[in-house]
Amino acid sequence: MEQMQIYEHEQFGKIRTLTKDGDVWFIATDICDALDIANTSQAVTRLDEDERSMFNIGRQGMTNCVNEYGLYNLILASRKPEAKTFKRWITHEVLPDIRKHGAYLTPAKLEEVLLNPDTLIRLATELKKAREERDALSIQNSELTVQNTVMQPKADYFDELVDRNLLSNFRNTAKALGVKQKEFIDYLLSHDYIYRDAKGTLFPYAEKNYGLFEIKECFNEKTDWKGYQTLITPKGRETFRLLLEGGVS
To answer: What is the pTM of this model?
Structure first.
């Protein structure tokens, strides 16, 4: 049986996790409940095999779990308005803490540890210091003006793109991600995100779209050509940035 750690949030409830071979895994039912995804089994089945697994968590036996990449795809699949808030909580607090200390301590748990000098006092002190530094940095950032816009976290940039619903083609997306267009398209083809039809036009697979792509009808007034073009959404750009930066090949 794997040892679990519980994250608590007043809005999203309890999220159970476990660490296996250095990777963080989330209990899929907890994530889906927080994101109002009704069918957990169906949602997990749609993920790539390297984004999901099953672990023994005790009385519930073998249970569906998702890693960080699977988590991001579930967030993108959610229609819940609070999904953006959930993503920021995971990426700005939970994951940084667990990567730095190998565990997540809630405020109540932190006080418990501090009251017992013999129990993880060094770890708790470091965690408290890290949180104070993060709070101080947050206050400092709130006082910055337009110059700080360029330095906003990627998560803020992503949220802005989503709100503006900016779409981009494969060439511009590849350029933004710092890869060659052919390499980017080959990556999407090899991972079954897209396919070529009989005419060579690229289209997304419906079962793996998750809002990553949009298909737009195109018309060329000069040639009277009509057709369709697959464009990548802000969610798609952020997803592929995370996958490429994470070394998923």
So the answer is: 0.42
